[in-house]
Sequence to fold (128 residues):
Amino acid sequence: MNNRLIEEAIKAKINAYAPYSGFRVGAALIDVDDKIYTGCNIENISFGATCCAERVAIFKAVSQGQKAFRAIAVVSDSNDFTFPCGICRQVMVEFKIPKIIVGNCNGKFKEYNLVELMPYAFDNLNVD
Fold:
């Protein structure tokens, strides 16, 4: 599963629209039925309108009726590992994505669970 997910994230990165930062990111999300949804970052001159690759993939899946996921992979052209931003992590909490795979341009990858990347998350368990 991991290799396939990583390969799809790398392919998705090609479609990134990053004219301002030049930082291309691809993401691939696998659901409980083994269907993969991909996303790339889409920048906007009004930076608040930019959407990260992870959220594009998640929103694509949700818009097609899926809300149960197994893992997401995130890759970029950076030598450093590419971690989801805080907003993406919060969306991952909302949909309880259990495994996050982060990679770099050298073909190295690390796996984390959601609690490791988003301890003390704001979720329905913390709402009175």
The chain has four helices and five strands.
